[in-house]
Amino acid sequence: MGILTSRFLATAASMLAAAAVQAEGDGRNVVGLGVGVVPVYQGSSEYRTLPVPMLNYESGSFFVTPRAGLPAMGLKTRLAQDWEAGVFVGMGLNRDSSDADRLKGLDDIDYHATYGAFVEWRPGPYALGLAYRQAAHKGYGGVMELRASYLAWRDDSNALRVGVNAEWANGDAMQTWYGVTPGQAARSRAGLHAYSPSSGLQSASLYAAWSHQLSARWSTVATLGVSTVLGDARDSPLVERDSNVFGSVGMVYAF
């Protein structure tokens, strides 16, 4: 399996990186690298260790920030005090049938370009964001994401942020990641039955991110969370476990 080759690895890496950046706070540009432990895909009983890139850069209206597992770039504008909106382009990651035993016989999901838009509200220690991400690949669909977090504690060296994340997927996205066509069912090594999920909520997550400042520029960060599949995604024959834990630890450099 290549780095970040399933959708949950992408989602978890994005959440870990974003949480680390938020915990570091102060609106500074940061770059770093961590190690994460996550399921092979959301709902899998198998876990993997993977590198987690952490990057947040802003210059005027231009930004680079984690979205869907890899850094995405875009433009944003201030709508009002504490309100921002913007557009972005990025990459959607793949999933190979060789990633897990339960996936053998299913079609691979290719790397693909993505694009979308977002709006964010950041009053004081709170952060609330709504974003839509559309796959440029035909048939891969789109996902709406709602994020909320709170800076629960900060002192001279430490910061603790807690947050929640929920995703809604349209019918194409649900079918891509949780569906099983009759042909795939016939080829399935695990004996999966055909399944066609409908659009709806597909997952929700809860996490805590801690940052400890080692020096003026260097900090260590750690994230721990739990994610659960919802709706038609939970009923997919691909899902072995309704909920998964995930976590990471790493270092970031502020500049």
Q: What are the SSEs and their pairings?
A:
Elements: H1 7-24, E1 30-39, E2 47-59, E3 62-67, E4 70-80, E5 83-92, E6 112-121, E7 126-135, E8 142-154, E9 158-169, H2 171-178, H3 182-187, E10 200-213, E11 218-229, H4 231-234, E12 243-254
Antiparallel strand pairs: 1-2, 1-12, 2-3, 3-4, 4-5, 5-6, 6-7, 7-8, 8-9, 9-10, 10-11, 11-12
Q: What is the compact description of this entry?
A:
This protein is mainly β. Helix content is 14%, strand content 52%.
How would you portray this structure in words?
- The protein is 14% helix and 52% strand.
- The N terminus is likely disordered.
- The chain is built from 4 helices and 12 strands.
- It has a single domain, classed as monomeric porin ompg (Porin, Beta Barrel), CATH 2.40.160.40.
- It has 255 residues and is mainly beta.
- A hairpin with a 2-residue loop joins strand 2 and strand 3.
- The longest helix is centred in the N-terminal third of the chain and has 18 residues.
- The radius of gyration is 18 Å and the shape is globular.
- Strands 1-2-3-4-5-6-7-8-9-10-11-12 form a 12-stranded antiparallel β-barrel.
Give descriptors for this structure.
single chain; 255 residues; mainly beta; Porin; twelve-stranded antiparallel beta barrel; 4 helices; 52% strand; globular; disordered N terminus
